[in-house]
Amino acid sequence: MTKDFAGKVAFITGGGTGIGAAVAKDFVQRGGRVVLMGRRRQPLLEVAEPLGGLVVEGDAADAADVKSALAKAIQQFGGIDVLVANAGGHGIGELTQTTDDSWRMATRLNLDTAFVCARELMPSLIARKGNIVVLSSLAGHFAGPAVVGYVTMKHALIGLTRSLARDYGRLGVRTNAVCPGWVRTAMADEQMQVLADKLGLPDFESAYQMVTKDVPLGRAALAEDVADAVLYLASDRAAMVNGTYLMVDGGASAVDLPTIAFAE
Questions:
Q1: Which terminus of the chain, N or C, has less C-beta within 10 A?
Q2: Mind listing the pLDDT tens digit for each residue in 84-94?
Q3: How many CB atoms lie under 10 A from the CB of residue 187?
Q4: How many separate domains does the chain show?
């Protein structure tokens, strides 16, 4: 494995599980060092300790917490080269079911975390000619049923990505997004179990098969699949890639939905 991140430091939000954890492991394997930020300390420690990473417990949407995390990262590692804005959460419910509080929570978990971290880390990223990778979603381009908060914020993250790319590209900071479809994580497993229970399916594996039956590659992604895309965009191999997004959805976004019936 190449050590293309030697001497580089990545700041990863939501790094204790799923995609964030996979990114952290791959980044270190490729020579880098990691700072993991999240609200639950124990999962962060389980990922960071074998990697020699720095754990900072806090809210990535809170400027004071992020400033404190950055100060610790600078003290230990000297600065930040890559921000992976991975923290997120669901905004469940259709419009009339969405309260002001649930809307604000969807905004805070998905959009504010990326915005605040990008703003607070930008001086270090400029100084070190770093870059940002934002985790949006297939839901950043298409609407699933009854998830208005989630869909709206994931769309907004594409706008944030483009805006940062436009404003900071001349200063040497690239910003791109990754848009996964279904990914096999603990959170997705829980959702698959809900679907299985609702439809009377035997297990959550059957639910995964159902939700991916029209995906050209026929499966959900692994966290490692998404991590590969993140690290490509964060690497020097993507030196001319700025302000765009990379779909990691097995081809789901290439499917013309009204023609599915012709393949049945």
A1: C
A2: 999 998 888 99
A3: 15
A4: 2
Q: Does residue 258 lie in a domain region?
A: no
- The label of the residue with tokens 């940062």 reads 164
* 74: enclosing H helix or E strand: helix 63-77
The verdict on 89 and 147 lying in the same domain is yes
Give the CATH number, domain containing residue 126.
3.40.50.720
Residue 55 to residues 61, 163, 178, 213, Cα–Cα distance (Å)? 17, 29, 24, 39
Question: What is the torsional sign of CA 239, 123, 244, 260?
Answer: positive
- pLDDT, one tens digit per residue, over 156-210 is 999 999 999 999 999 999 999 999 999 999 889 999 999 999 999 999 999 999 9
Encoded tokens for 250 = 């097995």
Strand order in the sheet with 131-135: 54-57, 33-38, 9-13, 82-85, 131-135, 174-180, 245-248
| DSSP classification of residue 134 | E
> Catalytic positions, please?
150
For 100-120, what is each residue's pLDDT tens digit? Answer: 999 999 999 999 999 999 999
